[in-house]
């Protein structure tokens, strides 16, 4: 029997699931505040830039974003299947490409912030 | 086999209406869409940040509108549902055995909730 | 009719059948083994056994002690050479199960733990919490999956043995799913089809324990031995007969009557032992027959508690505490809560004696061989005579293993003894007869009797007349009634005319088996004019070694009651004595 | 406690010899409240309709024969108490299995899958019987004990939507049983089992719906076992591909 290659992504999915569980709600909450102009001081360019310019900050941002992306991509792949979309390979390819592009974009964005 | 067993078909795209627990499962799975979308939003935001203050400001402006608020609200519900459903099953996926006893699941879940609260609080304070 | 060629066919895939199959597969991988069972192996009733399996392992124990307990427990009706073989093999077999992964409960140092059991002088019962039989059965079933030479025929119902040229050469079985008959051609057959407790209405036995294996052999001319010895287990849930294991008492549970008195001290099992400190072979750890009989006397005296389900005494385990109950008796607690809505941690549980086990069965010698060459039997359906007049708790599970394996080895010896060629025509003709018999039952349209109706009458008869205490008069009535029911069986008509999974037909065949067994019980009991072990007569209250230190053998007759013969008990080193359960100090 | 109640028992009937498809048949059954649904079926069989077919044996939730869908939920007939239901109870054969007849399903698929995971001890080292037992402390026993409690009732298969959607999926009970042996301190057969478990049809078809554990009458928690298997298989994969030197 052929061994499945799902563990590659599943590791990222599981790690991402944990990270998002801890952090995403509060991030969304902050974004919501920003969207509601609730706490103008918060999303200032300076403060965020400062955070992202720091190596530790970069690492955190990279970790959170990429793991969340892979978590979501993998779970959504299965969700699509559960909704009756049987072209698993196509769905998986598209979703993983999106996740990969997001990962690359994040990487380069972070590189260019000094 | 001389008999002819009867096979009940399972509707491929509406099976989850059969039981409430399947609906709960699908709700959990669908959170991934919102978490994915929100994360992509962060990816874009980060890119704008890298492009300079003006670009970032226009990103924020685009966010500020009823649509942005609505999206954030829905994503918030999804994210919280994801967190709770994730924490509630950790003792199953990662049981901890101490000697002859397993650490009670409630304790593990409780610890996760506590960490969650602390992390959220720190980020919130930092953010504001 | 499809013919299936095999070397050895096993009827029954419970503990005994599976153990036999594995022994065959291990002995010679080239042997073709057909394992035939009317249910999937893990549904076999061995799964219900709770308490454990006896075998000498600890240093404070000895084979002699196990021998003494077993023979005395059996009221000296055991064949002592068989007992000796049994206790010698017992530890090896239990150890073998350990090596196959059985999750035995353990001591802190990692060695296997043992618990006390009724009638045993020393703790020697290996256990896996209170699901010992369950774990044994599943360990055996799962281990059997290792061996490709074991070919399973799940949900096949064996109907008749094929005996030609003076030896057993196969059997016929009905594939339940299709309703088709199959002929199994084999050089040897092992019957391991379990007990017959379902002859009685109130029993710990599952629906499948209908004595089919006994009836198979019986009809093929093998005598049934000591069938009158039917064991009542003293502690069954009153509403549905679910068993609360002897382990309850082994762990320290006590029996009290309506006044809270530990009444066992009034029946020769005293003096009273301190609560929570059970003393072996005394009070609550007396043998099952004695305990069940004490209940009967208490009931006569009006000392029982009345419940919606009849008179009961109380099993009190509260003093064991929640932790110990959860650890050692989790299933018991679960069963009490689920089926009686009572928690043994908080309240005493009403219980009453319930039909549990058949000491008697297919007559075999110490090698598990029946008088018909090529036919072997093991497990509860067999009577090698290690249980005598009363089986000790936890000897049966071990017996399945020891004699399951023994039957396998004997079958191989038989095959290797140079068998003449089979007369295929004669076998096919017999198989055809068997098919015709069942077809006739299936096709019959004008019958007046129903399966449920006859079964109810049989059960009522057995309960009323062949229970814990018996009289000659009642037993004569039972004989008459059962033989009448056997005749009325000819008038049975089935309602279900479908071939696929016809449980109406299955139950009709099972009823046939039970009626045959029931008659052997009744006749054996009527003619045994003494009281011994589980067979207690109010008109002959004493044991009579002069006339009845003998095995009853009943021989089948298609129309008439069975012929009864007697066979001497094998005594090697223990002369019949007094069964003493009165504790260390007298 | 023993009051009587008239129950409408609606049972799915199917006779392959005469029916094209299953249909419901309703029986009016006088039930005692402490009864289980199996008692009601037995009442029907004995008093109303001897043609009704279903499997059962132990009546104490240990043989695993009597799994049915009761009001849409996979249950053991002998552990579904009448007093937990209203006056209308619907009994169907276990979902996701072909119906042989009435409440009897075809279970070969489960048996085959169960057998395929090598659910038996593959000892680390050979040891003769005379050398005594493999030592195993209570703590080591505890590590896998829960997974030994499976009665093969297949309720988890009837609950698992992924098994329904992807019939090739090995399914909860089979994989939990493999996990049981993997976790056993005496066992050394994990690598052999992984070939089946880590395959496409193995543990990776599970999306952690969790329904299996919710319906399991023996609290085996197959869902937990499967997630643990995934974690271990993932670690395997990373070890194998990122640290090839760590392979023995
Ligand atoms: C509730 C309970 C608790 C017990 N607890 C203990 C205990 O703690 N310790 C102890 O030592 N003993 C105990 N016993 C006794 C012991 O469990 C049984 O005696 C033993 O399990 C019988 O095993 P077996 O292999 O002979 O038969 P079973 O396990 O009953 O198996 C019989 C097999 O024969 C098959 N079969 C029957 N008829 C046919 C047919 N016509 N065609 C094809 N196949 C057929 C069945 O399908 C089944 O596979 C207990 C018994 C009960 C009921
Ligand atoms: S895991 Fe539970 S539900 Fe599944 S077969 Fe085993 S006991 Fe039944
Ligand atoms: S329900 Fe099915 S999807 Fe997994 S967690 Fe249980 S096996
Ligand atoms: S009858 Fe055995 S599990 Fe229900």
List the main descriptive attributes of the protein structure presented here.
heterotetramer, C: 586 residues, alpha/beta, FAD/NAD(P)-binding domain, Flavocytochrome C3, Chain A, domain 1, Methane Monooxygenase Hydroxylase, Chain G, domain 1, 3 domains, five-stranded parallel beta sheet, five-stranded mixed beta sheet, 18% strand, globular, D: 248 residues, alpha+beta, Ubiquitin-like (UB roll), Fumarate Reductase Iron-sulfur Protein, Chain B, domain 2, 2 domains, two-stranded antiparallel ribbon, elongated, binds flavin-adenine dinucleotide, binds iron/sulfur cluster, binds FE3-S4 cluster, binds FE2/S2 (inorganic) cluster, tricarboxylic acid cycle (chain D), 3Fe-4S (chain D)
Question: Can you describe this structure?
Answer:
The complex is a heterotetramer of chains A (114), B (128), C (586) and D (248). By secondary structure, chain B is mainly alpha-helical. Chain B is 73% helix and 3% strand. Chain B has a two-stranded antiparallel sheet with strand order 1-2. In chain B, a hairpin with a 2-residue loop joins strand 1 and strand 2. In chain C, helix 3 (80-99) crosses helix 10 (395-416). Chain C contains 15 helices and 24 strands. In chain C, the strands form six sheets. Chain C has a five-stranded parallel β-sheet, sandwiched between helices. A five-stranded mixed β-sheet of chain C has the order 20-18-12-23-24. Chain D folds into two domains: 4-105, Beta-grasp domain (Ubiquitin-like (UB roll)); 108-247, Fumarate Reductase Iron-sulfur Protein, Chain B, domain 2. Chain D is built from nine helices and seven strands. In chain D, helix 3 runs antiparallel to helix 6 (172-182). Chains C and D meet through helix 3, helix 4 and helix 9 of C and helix 1 and helix 3 of D. Chain A: The chain crosses the membrane at residues 12-35, 55-73, 85-111. Chain A: Keywords: Cell membrane, Membrane, Transmembrane, Transmembrane helix. Chain A: This is Succinate dehydrogenase/fumarate reductase D subunit. Chain A: InterPro entries: Fumarate_red_D (IPR003418), SQR/QFR_C/D (IPR034804).
């Amino acid at each position: 029997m052929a061994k499945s290659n799902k563990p590659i992504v599943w590791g990222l999915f599981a790690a991402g699931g944990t990270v998002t569980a801890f952090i995403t709600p509060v991030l969304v909450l902050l974004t919501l505040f920003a969207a509601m102009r609730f706490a103008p001081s918060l999303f200032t360019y300076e403060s965020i830039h400062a955070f992202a310019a720091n190596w530790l900050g970069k690492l955190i941002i990279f970790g959170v974003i990429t793991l969340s992306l892979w978590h979501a991509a993998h779970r959504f792949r299965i969700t699509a299947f559960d909704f009756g979309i049987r072209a698993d390979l196509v769905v998986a390819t598209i979703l993983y490409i999106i996740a990969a592009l997001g990962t690359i974009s994040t990487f380069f964005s972070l590189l260019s912030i000094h | 086999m001389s008999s002819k067993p009867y096979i009940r078909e399972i509707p491929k795209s509406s099976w989850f209406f059969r039981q409430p627990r399947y609906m709960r499962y699908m709700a959990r799975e669908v959170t991934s869409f919102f978490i994915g979308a929100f994360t992509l939003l962060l990816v874009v935001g980060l890119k704008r940040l890298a492009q300079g203050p003006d670009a970032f400001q226009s990103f924020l402006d685009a966010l500020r509108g009823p649509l942005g608020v609505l999206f954030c609200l829905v994503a918030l519900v999804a994210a919280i549902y994801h967190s709770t459903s994730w924490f509630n099953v950790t003792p199953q996926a990662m049981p901890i055995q101490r000697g002859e006893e397993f650490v009670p699941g409630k304790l593990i879940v409780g610890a996760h909730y506590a960490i969650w609260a602390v992390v959220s609080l720190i980020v919130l304070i930092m953010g504001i | 009719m499809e013919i299936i060629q095999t070397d050895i066919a096993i009827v029954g895939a419970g503990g005994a059948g599976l153990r036999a199959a594995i022994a065959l597969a291990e002995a010679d991988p080239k042997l073709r083994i057909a394992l035939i069972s009317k249910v999937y192996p893990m549904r076999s009733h061995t799964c219900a056994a709770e308490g454990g399996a006896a075998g000498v392992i600890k240093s404070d124990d000895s084979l002699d002690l196990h021998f003494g307990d077993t023979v005395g427990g059996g009221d000296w009706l055991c064949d002592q050479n068989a007992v000796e073989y049994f206790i010698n093999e017992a530890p090896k077999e239990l150890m073998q199960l350990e090596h196959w992964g059985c999750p035995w409960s353990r001591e802190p140092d990692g060695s296997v733990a043992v618990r006390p059991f009724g009638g045993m002088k020393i703790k020697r019962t290996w256990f896996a919490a209170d699901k010992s039989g369950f774990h044994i059965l599943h360990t055996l079933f799962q281990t059997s999956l290792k061996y490709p030479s074991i070919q399973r025929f799940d949900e096949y119902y064996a109907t008749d043995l094929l005996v030609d040229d003076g030896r057993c050469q196969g059997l016929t079985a009905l594939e339940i799913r299709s309703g088709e008959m199959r002929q199994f051609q084999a050089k040897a057959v092992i019957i391991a089809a379990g007990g017959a407790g379902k002859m009685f209405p109130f029993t710990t036995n599952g629906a499948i324990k209908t004595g089919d294996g006994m009836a198979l052999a019986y009809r093929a001319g093998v005598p049934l031995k000591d069938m009158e010895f039917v064991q009542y287990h003293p502690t069954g849930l009153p509403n549905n007969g679910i068993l609360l294991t002897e382990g309850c008492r082994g762990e320290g549970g006590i029996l009290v009557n309506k006044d809270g008195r530990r009444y066992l001290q009034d029946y020769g099992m005293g003096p009273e032992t301190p609560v929570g400190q059970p003393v072996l072979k005394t009070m609550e750890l007396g043998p099952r027959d004695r305990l069940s009989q004490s209940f009967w006397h208490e009931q006569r005296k009006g000392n029982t508690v009345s419940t919606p389900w009849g008179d009961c005494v109380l099993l009190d385990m509260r003093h064991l505490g929640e932790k110990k109950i959860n650890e050692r008796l989790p299933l018991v607690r679960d069963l009490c809560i689920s089926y009686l809505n009572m928690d043994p941690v908080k309240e005493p549980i009403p219980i009453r004696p319930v039909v549990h086990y058949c000491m008697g069965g297919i007559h075999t010698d110490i090698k598990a061989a029946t008088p018909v060459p090529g036919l072997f039997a093991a497990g509860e359906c067999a009577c090698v005579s290690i249980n005598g007049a009363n089986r000790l708790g936890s000897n049966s599970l071990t017996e399945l293993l020891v004699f399951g394996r023994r039957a396998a080895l004997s079958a191989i010896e038989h095959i290797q003894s140079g068998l003449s060629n089979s007369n295929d025509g004669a076998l096919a003709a017999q198989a055809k007869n068997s098919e015709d018999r069942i077809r006739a039952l299936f096709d019959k349209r004008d019958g007046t009797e129903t399966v449920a109706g006859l079964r109810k009458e049989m059960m009522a008869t057995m309960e009323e007349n062949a229970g814990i205490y018996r009289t000659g008069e009642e037993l004569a009535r039972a004989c008459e009634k059962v033989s009448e029911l056997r005749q009325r069986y000819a008038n049975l008509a089935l309602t279900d005319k479908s071939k696929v999974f016809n449980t109406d037909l299955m139950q009709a065949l099972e009823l046939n088996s039970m009626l045959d067994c029931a008659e052997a019980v009744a006749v054996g009991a009527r003619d045994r004019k003494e009281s011994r072990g589980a067979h207690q007569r109010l008109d002959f209250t004493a044991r009579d070694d002069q006339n009845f230190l003998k095995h009853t053998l009943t021989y089948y007759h298609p129309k008439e009651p069975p012929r009864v013969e007697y066979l001497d008990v094998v005594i090697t080193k223990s002369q019949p004595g007094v069964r003493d359960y009165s504790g260390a100090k007298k | 406690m023993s009051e009587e109640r008239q129950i409408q028992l609606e049972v799915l009937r199917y006779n392959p010899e005469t029916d094209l498809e299953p249909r419901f048949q309703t029986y009016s059954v006088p039930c005692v409240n402490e009864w289980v649904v199996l008692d009601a079926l037995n009442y029907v069989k004995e008093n109303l309709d001897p043609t009704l077919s279903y499997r059962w044996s132990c009546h104490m939730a240990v043989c695993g024969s009597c799994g049915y869908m009761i009001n849409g939920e996979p249950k053991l007939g002998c552990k579904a108490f009448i007093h937990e239901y209203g006056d209308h109870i619907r009994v169907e054969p276990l979902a996701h299995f072909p119906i042989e007849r009435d409440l009897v399903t075809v279970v070969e698929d489960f048996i085959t899958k169960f057998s395929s995971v090598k659910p038996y001890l593959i000892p680390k080292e050979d040891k003769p019987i005379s050398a005594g037992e493999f030592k195993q402390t209570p703590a080591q026993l505890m590590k896998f004990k829960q997974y030994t409690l499976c009665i093969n009732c297949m309720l988890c298969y009837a609950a698992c939507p992924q098994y329904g959607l992807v019939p090739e999926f090995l399914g909860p009970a089979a994989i939990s049983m493999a996990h049981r042996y993997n976790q056993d301190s005496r066992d050394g057969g994990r690598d052999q089992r992984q070939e089946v478990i880590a395959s496409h049809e193995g543990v990776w078809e599970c999306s952690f719906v969790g329904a299996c554990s919710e319906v399991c009458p023996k609290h085996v928690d197959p869902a937990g076992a499967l997630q643990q298997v995934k974690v271990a298989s993932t670690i395997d994969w990373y070890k194998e591909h990122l640290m090839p030197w760590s392979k023995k």
